């Protein structure tokens, strides 16, 4: 027995002190430095995110500012300042609304633009034309007029035309007086932006910290996390304290709702808005605690390792003393030693060694007997090594008698076939029975093929593999024998187990050392199951030479399929996807080409997501498809279902929404072109070429959005312009027809009479008579 005495105790204590004290000191220093580093990095990251947020917001606001400046300087706005809009001012009204629409671009998020004529008492916006008597915002207008700045940003609970008071989103307005720097402006331009647009500009990647934007009256305009809104009053109170104390921008620590938080704040010099980042210190402490646990576990492992080393070193140093001590004890107390020997049934150390050696010899004999009784296991191991190319030529010659069940221990021809279960669907078996089924098939093959013409059948992973050989047949006779055996195996398995299988057969070889190549060929033959289907026999040599190349990658079908995905055309997607998979299966000459075609289509669909500008994780969330998963699929139906459910269906909502927005933008551009260029030879093809779309596509968009085609809308607009020109009474009918691009005035007169019911001359007389009667 190994006993612990004073000398060994001293060795252990000294070794432990040398090893444990540095570990504890090093762990404490590393933990403190890591904690401080984490807090510094989090603060630096939040300062950077806050700065980027401010620059992004100010860039958008300045874009709106410049657009409003251009609108204020436009001729239509200047002309409208001294004009009261009437139905006869249709063209001026159209120019104003078009100019205001151009300010409302998608990228800046302007939801409405208001032109307010303070002297004439009217307002124009997206909802139309109003007089001051129809609205309840005169007090707000007076407040804006009394502001000292000629241009300023402000925020309200609701817009001028939309009551937003029940919503948590505020309306942000850019107010510009016209003319600028005037104590008594005659008009104002107001551009309104929802605070939700500002929320979209705030980075969502900041996991530690909440970014909040305040206006110059210390109201919350936008924040990173809407679920944080339950603390708005406390946050505004905190920001008011910061504003009153006039602290310089930077970092500070304070308390919010009883929780310790870090504050990073900045003040915008552009519009005096405030930018605040609130960092819960508890989150930083969590990261520090994780680091602390890692340091603690590392230190404990080092301590355990040092204790073990100390114990082993101490034991080694103490071993000579122990031997002397045991010698002295045994020699000084022979009677006690005799009693211990009788109790343990032991005599002396040499007898114990002799008994141990005898016991090992006995075990060796038993193992030899077990090995002799387990030749089958050895054969299975040798076959496995042979197929995997782990046996050298000399080893093969030595072990061939063990591999072959009967002499002569040589062969003239050899072939390898690999069997795989296609599917268990529709059978009486479950997926968990697959390994047992392979074991049963292995036993069936062991009985079907004569033992003198095959090595021991084995199972490798999901395959059953057999080496068939002969030593007296010709190559053709051997092929016929092999094919007959494989057909019989397929028939018997279908009869008794009722499951579909596929068998890949290699080319015949004349040397057993080529077994690894033959095994590889049998697996390659199995890979061509997508071309041949299930429950089939695949010959490697026929696949290599017997198939004719039919074509290349079906680019036209893929292009049509990608276009259907872009247009969210669910009806055509299934048809085109089925056709596409049929074509690549038909055109591919090898399984590798088939895989390359699938991966190419996978990459093209992935590029479609990138080209749309959408984030990959926002489309697929956590279930991201990968081409490794795609290449594991076996049949066309599995591939088609995978592409449909994993790749295409998650994309359809994205492109459906984008198509709707695109239709609205296209229809607006067409309306603008018609209203600005109605007196030119404007055609659908010209508009389509300017917008870089096909004319038939533009025609469908207008039909969906306006309910009429391009020519109908253009003719109706020209008819309205003709009415205005006839009402003015200063232009001849032939000149009007020429202005509206009618090459023959009679064609204009016939169309006008068809649409209005009277000729242009009658219309002018009727309007003049009505005007005279009103004047009297």
From TrEMBL:
The keyword Transmembrane helix applies. The keyword Methyltransferase does not apply. Residues 668-766 form the HTH araC/xylS-type domain. Keywords: DNA-binding, Membrane, Transcription, Transcription regulation, Transmembrane, Transmembrane helix. It holds the Pfam family HTH_18. InterPro entries: Homeodomain-like_sf, HTH_AraC, HTH_AraC-typ_CS. The chain crosses the membrane at residues 12-31, 293-313. GO terms for molecular function: DNA-binding transcription factor activity; sequence-specific DNA binding. PANTHER family: ARAC-FAMILY TRANSCRIPTIONAL REGULATOR (PTHR43280), REGULATORY PROTEIN POCR (PTHR43280:SF10). This is Helix-turn-helix domain-containing protein. It comes from Paenibacillus foliorum.
């Amino acid at each position: 027995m190994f006993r612990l005495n004073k000398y060994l105790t001293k060795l252990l204590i000294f070794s432990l002190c040398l090893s444990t004290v540095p570990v504890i000191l090093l762990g404490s220093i590393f933990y403190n430095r890591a904690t401080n580093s984490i807090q510094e990095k989090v603060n630096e990251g939040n300062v950077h995110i806050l700065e980027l947020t401010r620059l992004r917001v100010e860039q958008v606001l300045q874009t709106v500012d410049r657009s409003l400046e251009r609108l204020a300087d436009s001729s239509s706005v200047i002309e409208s300042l001294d004009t009261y809009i009437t139905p006869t001012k249709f063209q001026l009204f159209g120019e104003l609304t078009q100019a205001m629409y151009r300010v409302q671009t998608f990228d800046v998020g302007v939801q409405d633009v208001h032109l307010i004529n303070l002297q004439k008492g009217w307002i124009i916006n997206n909802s139309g034309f109003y007089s001051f008597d129809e609205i309840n915002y005169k007090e707000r207008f007076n407040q804006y007029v009394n502001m000292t700045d000629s241009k300023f940003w402000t925020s309200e609970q609701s817009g001028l035309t939309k009551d937003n008071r029940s919503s948590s989103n505020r309306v942000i307005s850019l107010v510009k007086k016209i003319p600028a720097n005037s104590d008594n402006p005659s008009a104002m331009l107001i551009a309104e932006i929802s605070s939700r647009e500002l929320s979209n500009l705030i980075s969502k990647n900041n996991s530690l910290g909440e970014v909040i934007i305040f206006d110059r009256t210390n109201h919350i305009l936008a924040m990173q996390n809407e679920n944080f809104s339950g603390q708005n009053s406390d946050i505004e109170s905190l920001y008011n304290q910061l504003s009153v104390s006039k602290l310089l921008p930077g970092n500070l620590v304070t308390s919010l709702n009883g929780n310790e938080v870090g504050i990073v704040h900045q003040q915008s010099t552009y519009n005096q808005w405030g930018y605040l980042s609130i960092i819960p210190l508890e989150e930083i402490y969590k990261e520090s605690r994780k680091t602390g646990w890692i340091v603690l576990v590392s230190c404990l492992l080092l301590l355990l390792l040092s204790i073990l080393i100390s114990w082993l070193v101490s034991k080694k140093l103490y071993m000579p003393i122990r031997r002397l001590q045991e010698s002295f004890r045994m020699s000084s107390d022979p009677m006690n030693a005799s009693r211990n020997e009788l109790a343990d049934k032991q005599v002396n150390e040499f007898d114990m060694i002799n008994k141990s050696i005898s016991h090992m010899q006995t075990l060796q004999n038993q193992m030899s007997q077990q090995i002799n009784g387990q030749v089958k296991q050895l054969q299975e191991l040798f076959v496995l090594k042979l197929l995997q190319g782990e046996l050298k030529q000399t080893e093969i010659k030595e072990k061939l008698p063990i591999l072959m069940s009967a002499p002569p221990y040589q062969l003239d021809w050899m072939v390898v076939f690999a069997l795989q279960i296609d599917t268990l669907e529709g059978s009486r078996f479950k997926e968990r029975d697959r390994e047992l089924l392979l074991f049963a098939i292995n036993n069936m093959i062991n009985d079907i093929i004569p033992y003198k013409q095959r090595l021991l059948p084995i199972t490798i992973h999901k395959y059953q593999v057999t080496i068939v050989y002969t030593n007296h047949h010709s190559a053709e006779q051997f092929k016929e024998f092999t094919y007959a055996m494989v057909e019989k195996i397929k028939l018997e398995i279908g009869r008794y187990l009722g499951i579909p299988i596929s068998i890949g057969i290699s080319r015949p070889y004349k040397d057993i050392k080529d077994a690894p190549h033959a095994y590889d060929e049998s697996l390659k033959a199995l890979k061509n199951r997508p071309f041949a289907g299930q429950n089939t026999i695949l010959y490697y040599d026929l696949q290599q030479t017997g198939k004719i190349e039919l074509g290349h990658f079906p680019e036209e079908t893929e292009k049509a399929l990608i276009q259907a995905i872009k247009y969210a055309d669910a009806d055509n997607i299934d048809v085109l996807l089925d056709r596409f998979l049929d074509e690549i299966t038909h055109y591919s000459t090898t399984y590798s080409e088939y895989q390359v075609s699938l991966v190419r289509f996978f990459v093209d669909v992935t590029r479609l997501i990138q080209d749309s500008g959408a984030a990959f994780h926002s489309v697929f969330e956590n279930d991201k498809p990968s081409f490794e998963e795609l290449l594991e699929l076996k049949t066309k139906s599995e591939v088609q279902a995978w592409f449909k459910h994993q790749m295409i269906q998650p994309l359809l909502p994205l492109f459906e929404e984008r198509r709707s927005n695109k239709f609205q933008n296209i229809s607006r551009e067409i309306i603008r072109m018609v209203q600005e260029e109605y007196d030119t030879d404007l055609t659908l093809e010209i508009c389509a070429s300017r917008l870089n779309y096909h004319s038939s596509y533009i025609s469908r968009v207008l039909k969906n959005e306006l309910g009429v085609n391009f020519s109908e809308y253009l003719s109706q607009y020209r008819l309205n312009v003709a009415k205005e020109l006839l009402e003015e009474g200063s232009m001849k009918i032939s000149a009007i027809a020429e202005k509206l691009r009618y090459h023959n005035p009679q064609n204009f007169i016939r169309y006008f009479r068809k649409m209005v019911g009277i000729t242009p001359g009658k219309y002018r007389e009727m309007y003049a008579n009505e005007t005279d009667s009103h004047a009297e």
